[in-house]
Specification:
Layout (H helix, E strand, L loop, with lengths): L1 E2 L3 E13 L2 E10 L13 H5 L14 E8 L5 E14 L1 H8 L2 H10 L7 E12 L4 H16 L6 H9 L2 E2 L30 H5 L2 E3 L7 E3 L13 H9 L1 H12 L3 E6 L2 H14 L8 E3 L16 E6 L12 E5 L4 E3 L13 H13 L2 H4 L14 H19 L7 E5 L5 E4 L1 H7 L6 H8 L1 H10 L3 E2 L3 H8 L1 H7 L3 H19 L15 H4 L13 H17 L10 E2 L6 H4 L11 H15 L3 H14 L3 H12 L7 E3 L1 H16 L9 H9 L2 E6 L2 E4 L13 H27 L18 H11 L5 H30 L8 H5 L20 H7 L12 H20 L3 H31 L19 E10 L19 E8 L2 E8 L9 E6 L3 E7 L11 E6 L3 E7 L5 H15 L8 H4 L5 H4 L40 H11 L25 H10 L1 H9 L16 E4 L15 E4 L4 H8 L9 E5 L6 E5 L4 H8 L11 H18 L2 H5 L6 H9 L4 H18 L55 H4 L5 E6 L14 E6 ...
Parallel strand pairs: 10-12, 10-13, 11-12, 19-20, 32-35, 33-34, 33-35
Antiparallel strand pairs: 1-7, 2-3, 2-6, 4-5, 5-6, 8-9, 13-14, 15-16, 17-18, 20-21, 22-23, 22-28, 23-24, 24-25, 26-27, 27-28, 29-30, 31-32, 36-37, 38-39, 38-44, 39-40, 40-41, 42-43, 43-44
Helix pairs in contact: 2-3, 4-5, 5-20, 7-8, 7-9, 7-12, 10-12, 12-18, 22-23, 22-24, 24-26, 27-29, 29-32, 29-33, 31-32, 32-33, 41-42, 45-49, 47-48, 49-50, 49-53, 50-51, 50-53, 53-54
C-alpha cells in the first residue's frame, strides 16, 4: 500500500524578496509539517511551481496545472502536481513609494515615470507531492480544493485536504478489496446494481475515493507494477515529432546522449519525457531526469553526464550554445542533432522493420493509399490504444535485441545472494554482432547494468517481457519478414499492455465538481486563499496513522517462479554464420589434417596445411579445430613429438591470430585448456607446453577475457557442487521437473533458481555451510587462474622485456564488462593499482608486471564474488611465489628449446653475387608477402608463388630476397626478388601478419626499377637487428659522397661503404692524381675555386652572383679577367694532355662527323666554314655544366660568348648540337633566359632609351649571335634582302623543294597542337595570331591560354588584320616561315615584343615541371606496384598518374622541331635550366632526324653528348648521395628512354638495338653499378678523375666501369641487344604518332621474373645457369621430358621461349661446339645470312630480308616511317600503307647515298688470322690524343703489326706495314705517358712517322723488340 499524497503545500509570491521585478516564491503552509520517514520533503519545490520565474502580471491569467518530477538523493522520483491560480494584490511598487523614507522615495520617483497599475495579480500554487504518478487524479483533487475555495462550498478545506493526505491505495492490482478508507473513503459504488454478474468481482477490487466534497473518483492501479504507465504520452510524442525523429531520440537515450525537449507547454514536456521512458522498457533510465527545468537552474544543461531534460521554449535562445545536446522541439516537430554528436542507430534490418511496423500503426492508410478500392475501415486506433500499440512495437524490438541474453548470464554465487555477471562478448559473438556500434554501447551502458541486476536473478516474479523474450522468440523469428503478422503480434501485445494499465475499462465514474463560470471569470475581487487550520489537518493524519497501526499488516502475495531462459543462442543465429567458413568440406579438411598429424602421416599433413590455415579464418573451422584437439587429450595431457608439436602450435597460432580482443567467447576460451595440455619432452624431466609458443596474442593481456573465463569456470564448479550435494542428500529435483530430463542437463540458472526457492527452508548451519562451500570454490578457482595467467603472460625468455611492449599489461585500469549485483571492486584493488599507471623502473621487470596484473585480476573477481579479506590476503601472498616458480621452470625449458634445431623452416638459400659485390649483413629470415599484384599469388591462375619464406640479404650493390614459396605444391621453386640499393625510393615500416604465424614487424621497400619487396621478419629476427639493417640500408642508399657508391667501392671491403671519411681528407683515391689540369693559359690569370661539389646558385644568391659578373666592362679582347668558380685542384699538367682528352670525347667526334667545325688554329681556320669549335669553356669557367668544346658561329669571338652567357640560367648560352645534312638547318640548345634579360632580348631595337646601358649592349650582342646562326644557313644566304617586302617574296618563292611545300600545312597544324590553338573557321578573321600554351590538365587535355598577339602569327597561318581595321597582310607575307624558331618557356617570355622584320620567332610552350614529373612517377610506381589490392583498376591508376600525358607532351614538341628542321628552319630549344626537358627534346629530335643515332654507336654517342657532356644532373635527379636525398628521385632520363621505346614500337625496323637495350639502360642508369651515369657534369667527373680513366688500369678485368664497354662486350658474345628487324632506310626522318591513344605502357614497368633477379646483370645469369646444370645432373637416370610449364611472372620468357632467330643461333653454336669447330661470332653469321638474302632478293625485286622478317613475324601492322614502303613493286613506284592520322607524308628515300655504316666502320678485317706474337701495348695517339692500351698482333705471314681494341675484337683497327719500318729503338717516357718503368718504352720508326709504344714491363718490351727485329731480318 502507498499514500496517494505525501505532502500538500501552499506556495505564494514572496513580497519581501523581490529583486528588480524578479520575485521569489515562499512556502506559506505545508501539511504534514514533519517529514515522513520513508519520503523526505523535496527541497526547492517553489522553483518548480513557476519554472519561468515568479512574476506579477497586470491581468488575471487562467488557472494552470502541470506535474513536475523531482529526484531525491536516493534516486527516488517525486511527482509534484502544481495547480496555479492568480490572486489580486496591491501593486507593491506603488505601496512601496508611500511607506519608504526619503531615499526610497527618490528611487520610487525614478521608477514612477512609467505608469504603474494600482492592482496586480500574483501567482499562488497548490502543490501535491506524491511518489505515485496519477496525473488525472491529482488534477481532479487540486481542482476540487480550488473549487471549494472559490465557490465557497460548505465543506471545510481542512477536511478535504485531511482526506487527501490520508488516502491509501495499493501499488499494483490484486489487493484492493482488503483495504478500507481511513477517513471518508466510500467503497459503495452507486452504479453497482447496473453491473453485469461477471463484473461484480472486479467492482469489489476497484478503488473509489472521495475527499468529502460530494466528489467520487475511481483509481485503477496497474496489474503489474514493473510495466510503465504511459496514458497517451507515447502516441502524443510520435504525433509531435514523427517516426524517424523519435527513433533518433530513442537510440540517443539508449546510447547515453544528452536530450533536451523544448515546448511552451509544461504538461507536454512532462508527457514527452514520460513517453520516451515508456518506450525504453525493459531498460530504465538512470541518469539525470528533469521533465521541467526552472529557468534559474539552466546551468544544469552544461553538465558532462547524459540527461533527459525539458525546458520552456521561452529559454530557447539560452540553449543555442549547447554543442553536444540533441534538442527536440515538440511545438515545431523538429529534432536538431549537433555535428559533433554521432548517434549509433539500430542495426539493420531491425531499423527498417521497426520503422515499417510503426508506420503501419500510426498511418494504416499509407499501405492502401494507392489502391483503387481502399477498404472502408483503415482509421488508426484510438489514441489510448495507439499508444499501447507503439509501445508493443518497441517491446517486440527489445525481444529481438536481447533474445538469448539469459544464456550469457554467469551465476558466480547463489548464497547468500545471487551474484550474476553478463558475458557481453559471448552474447555479441554468438549473434555475429561484434561490429555493431549500437548494441555495443547499449550493453556497456548503465541502463543495461541495472537490467542485469534486476532481471538476472533466476527466481523472481516475471512479467510480459520475460515471457516474450523466452517463449515467443521462435514466433518472432518466423514472422519478422511478414509485416502483417508482425502487426497482429503487436496488437496482441498492445492488448495486454492496455489491460495492465486499465484492468477495468468499462468502469469510469468520475464525479468531480468544477468551479462555476462566474468563479472562472470573476468581475469582482476574489478573496485570497485562506490560511488553513494546521491542527485540524494534523488530527486527520494522526487518526489515520493510529488506525493503520491497529490494522493487520498487509502482505502482497508475490508470485515468484523460475525465470524461463528461452531457446539457446546457437539455435537462433545459425543463419548469420558465414556459409563459406562453415562449409562441411572445409571442416573435413581440418579434421583430416589433425588426424594425419596424430597418425604421424606428416607428408599428408604438410600438403593439407595451407588449406587448413586458410580454412581457420572461419569461426566454424576454429571451433571444429578445438573440438578435434579435445578428443586427443587424455587425462589433461597429450605428449607429442617435435614435428607434431610444431604443426599443432602453428595451427593454434593461426586460429588465435584473427581473434579480436572481444573474441574471448569463442576460440581463445576453447583453446585455453588445450594450450596447457599439449606438450613435448625436451630432456630429462623438462617438458615444453604449447602455451609457451602461443603467447604473442593480445587476447591474453585482456582483463575482460580472464574475467569471462574465470566466471564461466566458477559457474561450472558451482553447478557441479550442487549436483553432488543433491546426489548425496537425495534432494530429488527430478520429481519437480515433470520428467523433463535427467539432473545432469539442468543449467546453472535452473539450479540457482531451485536453491533460491529452498534457501528460506534451510537452517542456519546449513546456510553457513553452503556459503562456505561456494567461497572455497571461488577461492580455488582464483588460485588455478593465477597459475594459468602466469603460464600465458610470462615469456619463454623472461630476460627480455617483450611483455610490456607488446601487451596491455602496462595499462593498468583495464575496462571490465562485468555487471555485478552485490559489490564493486573494493579497497584491496586500490592499494595495488595506485602506482601502476606509469611504467617506472620497477615495472620494467617482467615478473613484477605479471604479478601486478594477476593481483588486479584477483582483487576484481574476488571482490565481485564476495570472497573474504582473509582469503584475498592469502592469495596476494601466494601469487609472487607462483610466478617465481613458473619463471624457474621456464628457464630450463628455454635453455633446452634453444638446443632444438628449428623444424620446418626451409634452409636459407645463398644468393649469387657479382664479382666485387660483397654481403654487408648475413641473411635474415623473412617472409615475402604478397602485395597488390595478383600474378604471383595464384588468384589469376597458376600456383601461389607468394607468400614465400626465405632470407633478405644486403650487399654492397643490391637488396636480395631469396626463398621458396610456402605453398608445398610449388615448394621446390626458388623465388628471387632484388633491386640495386641505389634505386630504393621509399622504405616504410609495416606490421604484417603472415598466413601461418604471427609475425612481429615488416618492411616495404620500393625501387625505381619497378620492384617492390614487402617482407615480414620472422620471429627469430630481433627487432634490434631490423634497426641495424635499416641503418645499413640507409647508409648504402645515401652515401656521404659519390665515392661511396658501388661503382667506386666495387671490390673493396664492405666496411668502407658504411663508414666514409670526409672527401677532403680521402687520399686513397688514385684517380685524383690523373685530374685534368685546371691551369689557365698564359693569357689567363689562374682562377680560384672552392672544392665543393657543384650545385647551381639558389634564387637568393643568384642575383648577387649575377651582379658580380656584370661588373665587367664590355671588352673586345680575348684576355678576360673575372673571378668565377673553377676547380681548386693544383696538380700541374700540360694543356696538350687536357685538350687531347677533351677532343677524344663524344661531342667532338660527333661535331666532326656532322661537319660542324674543326679544331684548328684561328689563323688557318677556313672562313668559309659557318661554325667553329670554340675552346672558350675548356677550363669550365664560362659554364660548369657544359662540355669543354662547343660549336659557335664562326663570326662570334669568345669574349662575346662570355657576356652573352650571363643572360641565360646557369650560363647555359645557345650552342649548336646538330645540323641537318640536307637542309643545313641547325639545332641549338640553351637554358631559359634570366628574368632580367628577357625584356631586353625581345624589345624592339627602335625603342628609345635615355642612356645606352650595359643590358642594352648585351641584348644587341645576343641578337648578333642569333643573326650569325641564321646567317650560317644556306637558305638565308640565298634570300638576301631579307628586310624588304620583295625579300620576303623571293625567300618564300625560292623554296622550290616540293616536300617543303607539302609539309608546310603540317607544320602549322603541329604548331597549333603544341601551342594549344583552336582551329579558326575558314573565311573569318582571327583577332591577331592567338598563341596558346599547352597545359596538362588531369585528363591530359590541352587548355588554351592566350599569349601575346603580336608574337609571330606567320607560322600558324592565321589571318592578322591591321590594327586600323584595314585588310590583312598579303598571303605570301603571312605564310613566310622564319629562319629560326625559339622553343621557349611561356612563363619566361611574357611581355616581349616581336619586330615584324626579325628573322626568328618564339614558340611559347608550357613545359612540364620537374615536380610534375616526380609526382607523376610516384603515382605510376604505385599503379604498377600497388602495396595492397586497390579498388581502382590498374588502368585507372595509370591514367591518373598522367605519365602518358607527359610523354605525349615531350614527343609532340620533338616532332614539331623535327618538322621545322626538315623544312629548312633552324630551331633553338631554350627551356628551364637547359638540362632536363631541353635535353629530352634535342635528343629525341636528333634520334628522329638522323638514322646514325638509331645504331649502337650512334645512340651511345647521343647519350654521351647530350646527357653526359651537356650536364644532365644524374646524381641530383637520382638522389644518389646524402646531399641530394631531400630532392627526391626524378626520372627525366627514364622518361626519355620511354619516349624512345614508344618510337621503337612504331618503327621497329629503324633501330639497330632492341627494346631490351632500352630496358638495360633504364635499369643501370639508376643502379650505380657503372660510373657512366654518376655525377652531374663533365666538370665534376674531371674533378674526381673519372672522365679520362685509363682503360688498362682496371683492378680486375671483370669490373667494368663503363656501361657502354659492358654492352659492347655482351653484344659480341650474344645477340641480346640486337634488333633482327633492323633494316634502315637511308636518311629516314621518323615522324611518330604522339597522341596518348597511340602510346603504350612500357612493359619494363610491369614485368617481373621471380625465378631470378632482374635479368640486367648478365654475370648472375651465367652463374645461375651453371648452378642449375650442376643441380640437375643427378636426375639423369629418370626419364626427362622436353616439355615444361612457363609461368609469365616466374620465368624469364626470353630465356625459356627465345625467338626463332636467337634459338637457331644458339643451336648453331652448340652444334659447332659438339663438332669441335671454332665457334663463329653470331654477328658474322647473321651478316652472312643477311648478305645472301639481299643478293638473292635483288633480281626478283623482293622486299629486303628484314622486311620479310617483319611481315613473317606477324608485325605487319607496325609502322615503318608511318607506313611500310613496298619499293619498286608492281603496284607502283612507292605505295604508302601508313595510317597517318597527323597528316604527314612519307619522304621518298634519296638513291645513291652511302650507307650509314660507313660513318662509323672504317676498317673491315676479313683476312685470316696469322698471329706470330701478340699482347697489350700502350700506343701514343696522334697529337692531342692520350696513350691508349691496344691489343697488338705481329703477323709474320702478312708482314704486318695489326692492332685491335681488345683481345676479343675481330675487327682490325689499323696496321703498320713492316716493309716501311726503318728501325726499332728503346724509347723514353713522356709527361702524359703511363707510369711504368722507363725500360718498357720503345719506338718504331717508319718512313712516314715514329710510333711510340709502352709494354707492360721491361721484359715484355724486350720481347716485342726482339720479335719485330726477327721479323724484319726474316724479310
Amino acid at each position: 500500500m502507498a499514500r496517494l499524497a505525501d505532502y500538500f503545500v501552499v506556495i505564494g509570491y514572496d513580497l519581501d524578496k523581490r529583486v528588480e521585478g524578479e520575485g521569489q516564491g515562499c512556502i506559506l503552509q505545508r501539511f504534514p509539517e514533519k517529514d515522513w520517514e520513508d519520503s523526505p520533503f523535496p527541497q526547492g519545490i517553489e522553483l518548480f511551481c513557476q519554472p519561468s520565474g515568479w512574476q506579477v502580471v497586470p491581468e488575471q491569467q487562467p488557472a494552470s496545472f502541470f506535474v513536475a518530477v523531482l529526484t531525491d538523493i536516493n534516486s527516488d522520483r517525486h511527482y509534484c502536481a502544481c495547480f496555479t491560480f492568480w490572486e489580486c494584490l496591491d501593486n507593491p511598487q506603488v505601496t512601496g513609494c508611500r511607506k519608504a523614507d526619503g531615499s526610497r522615495a527618490d528611487e520610487a520617483d525614478e521608477e514612477a515615470d512609467v505608469v504603474q497599475p494600482a492592482r496586480v495579480f500574483a501567482p499562488k500554487s497548490l502543490v501535491l507531492v506524491s511518489q505515485l504518478d496519477y496525473t488525472e487524479v491529482f488534477r481532479n483533487c487540486l481542482g476540487l480544493i480550488y473549487t471549494v475555495h472559490v465557490d465557497d462550498l460548505s465543506v471545510p478545506l481542512e477536511t478535504v485536504i485531511g482526506n487527501l493526505l490520508t488516502c491509501v491505495i495499493p501499488l499494483a492490482g490484486g489487493s484492493q478489496t482488503d483495504e478500507s478508507a481511513v477517513c471518508s473513503l466510500d467503497r459503495v459504488v452507486p452504479g453497482v446494481a447496473c453491473l453485469q454478474p461477471g463484473q461484480e468481482e472486479k467492482a469489489k477490487s476497484l478503488r473509489t475515493i472521495t475527499l468529502g466534497a460530494g466528489d467520487r473518483q475511481v483509481i485503477q492501479t496497474p496489474i503489474s507494477d514493473s510495466l510503465p504507465v504511459s496514458g497517451c504520452s507515447v502516441a502524443q510524442l510520435f504525433r509531435q515529432l514523427g517516426i524517424v525523429n523519435v527513433l533518433y531520440l530513442f537510440c540517443a537515450a539508449l546510447t547515453e546522449h544528452k536530450i533536451l525537449f523544448l515546448s511552451s507547454s509544461y504538461q507536454r514536456l512532462t508527457d514527452a519525457c514520460r513517453g520516451l521512458l515508456a518506450i525504453m522498457f525493459p531498460l530504465k533510465y538512470s541518469f539525470t531526469y528533469v521533465p521541467i527545468l526552472p529557468g534559474k537552474l539552466l546551468e544544469v544543461l552544461s553538465t558532462p553526464t547524459p540527461f533527459i531534460i525539458g525546458v520552456n521554449s521561452f529559454f530557447r535562445s539560452e540553449t543555442q550554445e549547447l554543442l553536444d545536446v540533441i534538442i527536440a522541439d515538440l511545438d515545431g516537430g523538429t529534432v536538431t542533432i549537433p555535428e559533433c554528436v554521432h548517434i549509433s542507430l539500430l542495426p539493420e534490418p531491425l531499423l527498417q522493420q521497426t520503422q515499417t511496423a510503426l508506420s503501419m500503426v500510426l498511418d494504416p492508410e499509407l499501405e492502401v493509399a494507392d489502391q483503387a478500392f481502399p477498404p472502408q475501415s483503415t482509421q488508426p486506433s484510438a489514441l489510448k490504444i495507439q499508444d499501447k500499440e507503439i509501445r508493443a512495437v518497441f517491446l517486440w524490438l527489445f525481444a529481438r535485441l536481447f533474445q538469448g541474453y539469459r544464456w550469457c548470464l554467469h551465476i558466480i554465487r547463489i548464497h547468500p545472494e545471487p551474484v550474476i555477471r553478463f558475458h557481453k562478448a559471448a552474447f555479441l559473438g554468438q549473434r555475429a554482432l561484434m561490429e555493431d556500434d549500437f548494441l555495443m554501447k547499449v550493453l556497456d551502458g548503465m541502463a543495461f547494468a541495472a537490467f542485469v541486476s534486476e532481471r538476472g536473478p533466476p527466481y523472481r516474479t516475471t512479467d510480459l517481457f520475460d515471457d516474450l523474450v523466452a517463449n515467443q522468440v521462435e514466433r518472432i523469428r518466423q514472422e519478422e519478414s511478414c509485416p502483417h503478422k508482425v502487426l497482429n503480434h503487436v496488437k496482441e501485445l498492445a492488448e495486454q499492455l492496455f489491460k495492465n494499465e486499465n484492468p477495468y475499462p468499462a468502469v469510469a465514474m468520475h464525479k468531480v465538481q468544477r468551479p462555476s463560470d462566474s468563479s472562472l471569470n470573476p468581475t469582482q475581487n476574489q478573496k485570497p486563499f485562506p490560511v488553513l487550520d494546521e491542527v485540524s489537518v494534523q488530527l486527520f493524519i494522526d487518526h489515520a496513522a493510529a488506525k493503520l497501526k491497529t490494522a493487520p499488516p498487509v502482505v502482497k502475495a508475490e508470485v515468484k517462479s523460475m525465470v524461463p531462459s528461452g531457446p539457446p543462442l546457437g539455435d537462433t543465429v545459425d543463419r548469420n554464420g558465414c556459409v563459406m567458413a562453415n562449409s562441411a568440406r572445409r571442416l573435413e579438411v581440418v579434421r583430416n589434417c589433425i588426424s594425419y598429424i596424430f597418425e604421424n602421416k606428416m607428408l599428408e599433413a604438410k600438403k593439407l596445411m595451407p588449406a587448413v590455415l586458410r580454412a581457420l579464418k572461419g569461426r566454424g573451422a576454429r571451433l571444429c579445430f578445438t573440438q578435434e584437439l579435445n578428443q586427443h587429450v587424455l587425462q589433461n595431457r597429450a605428449v607429442l613429438d617435435d614435428q607434431q608439436f610444431d604443426y599443432i602450435v602453428r595451427m593454434m597460432n593461426c586460429t588465435l591470430q584473427d581473434c579480436s580482443h572481444m573474441d574471448e567467447h569463442g576460440v581463445a576460451a576453447a583453446l585455453l585448456p588445450l594450450v596447457t595440455a599439449f606438450c613435448r619432452k625436451l630432456g630429462a624431466g623438462i617438458t615444453q607446453f604449447a602455451y609457451s609458443c602461443v603467447q604473442e596474442h593480445t587476447v591474453w593481456t585482456n582483463m575482460q577475457f580472464w574475467e569471462a573465463m574465470f566466471y564461466s569456470d566458477v559457474q561450472n564448479h558451482i553447478r557441479a557442487l550442487y549436483l553432488e550435494t543433491e546426489d548425496g542428500e537425495q534432494h530429488s529435483i527430478s520429481q519437480q521437473q515433470d520428467g523433463s530430463g535427467s539432473r545432469k542437463d539442468i543449467s546453472a540458472l535452473e539450479l540457482a533458481s531451485e536453491q533460491s526457492r529452498l534457501w528460506p527452508t534451510f537452517g542456519k548451519e546449513m546456510q553457513a555451510e553452503l556459503v562456505q562451500k561456494e567461497e572455497s570454490t571461488v577461492f580455488s578457482q582464483a588460485i588455478h587462474y593465477a597459475n594459468r595467467m602466469s603460464y600465458l603472460l610470462l615469456p619463454l625468455d623472461t630476460s627480455k622485456n617483450r611483455l610490456l611492449k607488446s601487451s596491455g599489461l602496462g595499462d593498468v585500469e583495464s575496462v571490465s564488462n562485468s555487471y555485478v549485483t552485490n559489490s564493486i571492486a573494493g579497497s584491496m584493488a586500490e592499494s595495488y593499482d595506485t602506482e601502476s599507471g606509469f611504467e617506472d623502473a620497477e615495472s620494467s621487470d617482467v615478473a613484477n608486471s605479471v604479478v601486478r596484473f594477476i593481483n588486479r585480476f584477483v582483487d576484481k573477481v574476488c571482490n565481485e564474488s564476495g570472497v573474504t579479506n582473509e582469503h584475498l590476503k592469502a592469495l596476494h601472498i601466494m601469487i609472487p611465489d607462483i610466478v617465481q616458480m613458473h619463471i624457474e621452470t621456464l628457464d630450463a625449458v628455454h635453455r633446452e628449446s634453444k638446443r632444438l634445431p628449428p623444424i620446418q623452416k626451409p634452409k636459407l638459400l645463398r644468393p649469387t653475387l657479382l664479382p666485387g659485390e660483397e654481403l654487408m649483413m648475413d641473411g635474415m629470415r623473412v617472409h615475402l608477402v604478397p602485395d597488390g599484384r595478383d600474378e604471383a599469388t595464384g588468384l589469376m591462375g597458376g600456383p601461389a608463388l607468394l607468400p614465400a619464406e626465405g632470407a633478405i640479404f644486403l650487399t654492397t650493390y643490391r637488396l636480395i630476397f631469396k626463398g621458396t614459396p610456402t605453398d608445398p605444391l610449388v615448394g621446390e621453386q626458388v623465388v628471387t626478388r632484388s633491386f640495386p640499393i641505389a634505386s630504393l625510393t621509399k622504405e616504410k615500416k609495416i606490421s604484417v601478419t603472415a598466413i601461418d604465424q604471427y609475425v612481429q614487424e615488416g618492411l616495404q621497400l620500393r625501387s625505381c626499377t619497378f620492384q617492390l619487396i614487402k617482407i615480414a621478419f620472422d620471429e627469430e629476427v630481433e627487432s634490434d637487428l631490423v634497426e641495424v639493417f635499416r641503418k645499413h640500408l640507409h647508409k648504402l642508399r645515401y652515401p656521404q659522397h659519390v665515392h661511396g657508391t658501388f661503382a667506386f667501392t666495387v671490390g673493396q671491403c664492405g666496411k668502407l661503404v658504411v663508414e666514409h671519411k670526409t672527401k677532403d681528407k680521402n687520399q686513397s683515391l688514385k684517380t685524383l692524381s690523373r685530374n685534368l689540369v685546371k691551369t689557365a693559359k698564359r693569357t689567363i690569370v689562374r682562377q680560384n675555386v672552392s672544392r665543393k661539389k657543384y650545385s647551381p646558385p639558389t634564387w637568393e644568391n643568384r642575383s648577387s652572383l649575377q651582379s658580380e659578373l656584370d661588373e665587367d666592362e664590355i671588352s673586345v679582347s680575348e684576355e678576360v679577367d673575372h673571378s668565377v668558380l673553377t676547380l681548386s685542384s693544383t696538380i700541374r699538367s700540360s694543356d696538350r694532355q687536357t685538350m687531347s682528352n677533351v677532343v677524344e670525347r663524344a661531342c667532338c667526334r660527333d661535331y666532326q662527323r656532322l661537319g660542324l667545325g674543326t679544331l684548328s688554329n684561328s689563323l688557318t681556320r677556313s672562313k668559309s666554314e659557318p661554325f667553329r669549335i670554340s675552346t672558350v669553356n675548356r677550363m669550365y669557367s664560362i659554364c660548369r655544366s657544359y662540355p669543354g668544346l662547343l660549336i659557335v658561329p664562326q663570326t662570334i669571338p669568345d669574349s662575346t660568348i662570355q657576356r652573352i652567357s650571363r643572360c641565360y640560367r646557369q650560363n647555359r648560352f645557345p650552342v649548336v648540337c646538330w645540323r641537318n645534312s640536307r637542309t643545313k638547318a641547325v639545332l641549338l640548345r640553351s637554358a631559359g633566359l634570366h628574368a632580367k634579360g628577357v625584356v631586353g632580348f625581345f624589345k624592339s631595337p627602335n625603342t628609345p632609351t635615355a642612356v645606352p646601358s650595359q643590358a642594352d649592349s648585351t641584348s644587341l650582342e645576343q641578337e648578333k649571335y642569333l643573326q650569325a646562326i641564321i646567317g650560317s644557313m644556306p637558305s638565308y644566304s640565298e634570300s638576301s634582302g631579307r628586310n624588304t617586302l620583295s625579300g620576303f617574296s623571293s625567300a618564300h618563292m625560292s623554296t622550290s623543294d616540293s616536300a617543303d611545300k607539302l609539309r608546310q600545312p603540317k607544320i602549322g597544324m603541329l604548331m597549333k597542337q603544341v601551342m594549344g590553338v583552336k582551329e579558326e573557321v575558314p573565311g573569318t578573321f582571327s583577332r591577331g595570331g592567338r598563341w596558346g600554351s599547352i597545359r596538362l590538365t588531369g585528363s591530359g587535355a590541352l587548355r588554351l591560354s592566350a599569349y601575346n598577339p603580336d608574337v609571330g602569327p606567320r607560322l600558324a597561318g592565321f589571318e592578322s588584320p591591321q590594327p586600323n581595321g584595314g585588310p590583312s597582310e598579303p598571303l605570301f607575307l603571312r605564310q613566310q616561315k622564319a629562319f629560326l624558331y625559339i622553343i621557349g618557356d611561356k612563363s619566361q617570355l611574357k611581355g616581349g615584343k616581336q619586330d615584324a622584320f626579325q628573322q626568328w620567332e618564339v614558340v611559347p610552350i608550357e613545359v612540364c615541371d620537374v615536380r610534375q614529373v616526380k609526382n607523376s612517377f610516384k603515382k605510376l610506381i604505385k599503379a604498377c606496384m600497388p602495396s595492397s589490392v586497390t579498388a581502382d583498376g590498374f588502368l585507372r591508376c595509370v591514367e591518373e598518374s598522367e605519365w602518358m600525358s607527359l610523354l605525349h607532351r615531350v614527343l609532340q614538341v620533338s616532332v614539331l622541331v623535327v618538322e621545322l628542321l626538315d623544312t629548312g628552319s633552324s630551331a633553338m630549344v631554350s627551356l628551364e635550366d637547359g638540362w632536363d626537358v631541353t635535353t629530352q627534346v634535342v635528343s629525341l629530335v636528333q634520334l628522329l632526324s638522323d638514322p646514325y643515332y638509331r645504331t649502337f654507336d650512334g645512340f651511345r654517342l647521343l647519350v654521351e653528348k647530350e646527357w653526359l657532356s651537356f650536364g644532365h644532373r644524374f646524381s641530383h635527379r637520382g638522389a644518389q648521395t646524402l646531399a641530394s636525398q631531400s630532392s627526391g628521385f626524378t626520372p627525366v632520363f627514364l622518361q626519355f628512354l620511354d619516349c624512345v621505346h614508344q618510337i621503337h614500337l612504331q618503327f621497329p625496323m629503324e633501330f639497330e638495338f632492341s627494346q631490351y637495350y632500352l630496358k638495360f639502360l633504364a635499369y643501370h642508369y639508376v643502379s650505380n653499378r657503372f660510373r657512366t651515369f654518376l655525377l652531374d657534369s663533365d666538370y665534376e667527373r674531371i674533378e674526381l678523375g673519372v672522365l679520362f680513366e685509363e682503360k688498362g688500369e682496371r683492378k680486375s678485368p671483370l669490373v667494368c666501369k663503363s656501361v657502354w664497354d659492358y654492352i659492347d662486350r655482351l653484344n659480341k658474345k650474344a645477340p641480346v641487344f640486337y634488333n633482327y628487324m633492323f633494316s634502315p632506310e637511308d636518311e629516314e626522318v621518323l615522324r611518330p604518332y604522339t597522341f596518348i591513344s597511340n602510346l603504350k605502357l612500357w612493359d619494363f614497368y610491369t614485368e617481373e621474373t621471380l625465378s631470378e633477379a632482374p635479368s640486367y646483370d648478365w654475370e648472375l645469369r651465367g652463374r645461375q645457369e651453371r648452378a642449375e646444370e650442376v643441380a640437375d645432373k643427378p636426375d639423369t637416370s629418370a626419364p626427362v621430358t622436353q616439355r615444361r610449364i612457363v609461368w609469365p611472372c616466374y620465368d624469364n620468357l626470353s630465356k625459356v621461349m627465345p625467338d626463332a632467330i636467337s634459338k637457331l643461333l644458339q643451336d648453331l653454336q652448340s652444334l659447332e661446339a659438339e663438332l669441335g669447330q671454332t665457334a663463329e661470332r653470331w654477328k658474322d653469321t647473321w651478316d652472312k645470312i643477311k648478305m645472301t638474302q639481299r643478293t638473292d632478293a635483288k633480281p626478283e625485286s623482293k622486299p629486303s630480308f628484314s622486311s620479310s622478317l617483319l611481315m613473317a613475324s606477324n608485325l605487319s601492322h607496325q609502322r615503318r616511317s608511318q607506313g611500310v614502303c613496298l619499293q619498286e613493286s608492281a603496284v607502283g613506284p612507292s605505295l604508302n600503307l601508313g595510317l597517318d592520322c597527323e597528316g604527314g607524308a612519307t619522304s621518298t628515300p634519296v638513291p645513291g647515298r652511302t650507307s650509314t655504316s660507313t660513318l662509323y666502320s672504317q676498317f673491315q678485317s676479313t683476312e685470316s688470322e696469322n698471329r706470330s706474337f701478340e699482347g697489350i701495348l700502350y700506343k701514343r695517339g696522334s697529337i692531342l690524343k692520350p696513350w691508349r692500351p691496344r691489343w697488338f698482333v705481329l703477323d709474320k705471314t702478312k708482314h704486318q703489326l695489326r692492332y685491335y681494341n681488345t683481345r676479343q675484337d675481330k675487327e682490325c683497327r689499323g696496321f703498320i706495314d713492316l716493309a716501311e719500318v726503318e728501325a726499332v729503338t728503346s724509347g723514353s717516357p713522356m709527361v702524359t705517358s703511363p707510369k711504368i718503368t722507363e725500360k718498357a718504352y720503345f719506338d718504331l720508326k717508319t718512313t712516314k712517322r715514329v710510333f711510340c709504344f709502352c709494354a707492360q714491363d721491361a721484359a715484355s718490351a724486350q720481347q716485342w723488340m726482339d720479335s719485330i727485329q726477327s721479323c724484319l731480318s726474316d724479310a
